[in-house]
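For the sake of transparency, this paper describes our internal protein records without simplification. Because each token names a local backbone shape, the row as a whole describes the fold. One such record is reproduced below, unchanged from the form in which we store it:
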Amino acid sequence: FKCSGTGKEMSSSEPISSLKGIGEKTGKLFEKLGVITIDDLLSYYPRAYDTYEPPVPVGQLKEQMVMSVAAALPKPPDLLRTGKIQMVSAYVRDITGALQLAWYNMPYMRANIKSGQMYVFRGKVVKKRGRLMMEQPEVFTEEAYETVVNSMQPVYGQTRGLSNKTIVKAEKQALENRQMKREYMPAFLRRKYELAEINYALEHIHFPRDQKELLFARKRLVSSFPPTFTILLTSPIVAIVKGICSTFFLLPYFRSFLRMSRLYQVHADANLTIEKFTFSIFVYPSYFQTLVSIF
């Protein structure tokens, strides 16, 4: 996933109805999940991730597992009716075995799948009446499946009438058009604790390429810093204290004093900037005594 953007930035406070394809009905479904604004949507993290594995021969399919198989239908699907239930049924076969595909109450699938064309079918494998079967499988062209194979696809908490596909589409659109968040954590702290930049973390917790990217993003967004620390870093107090520290940096002999202090020794950094000094006061409360001792 790449954030390409459309040129129009969306404020985090805008309602999700400002996203293309989300009308009043879909908006109310999102509201059941507590998602009302763009910021709510971006803060609605996946509950799990689905890894799309390469297709396997029919003979290697395992019951109760979500797997993929690449095959072509030898003949068009059949549309069967039993009471109020409509079932589109099709069979695929290779040298290792046969597999039945079934879609319930989705009659349009009969027209969507062409015989003789290669597809990748992905779904949960079950056995009914002694036959291997996939119910409601996803259908991809081979080219489309190549774009997701070996990737981690997000799975979100859902509500009746709101599919994971709709949520994924909305998340992608919000990420592409969002207004970038202002980074409140200084670079030296991110390096010290190996934390991702806020916008990078936000994008990759939704659409990580691999487990490493996911863990890096999660560490930033679900970090060990207490909530009060995050609130403090985003408050006007920081700007005020930074202004005071800037004044101190202009005083004669102030840097010489810092080089003799415990604050400088702990940082072990000759480039002790205003930002480092300011945030050290918040991160390490005992350093406040260093500032007080100046007087």
Strands lie at 48-51, 66-72, 78-82, 85-94, 97-104, 118-128, 131-135, 138-141, 152-155.
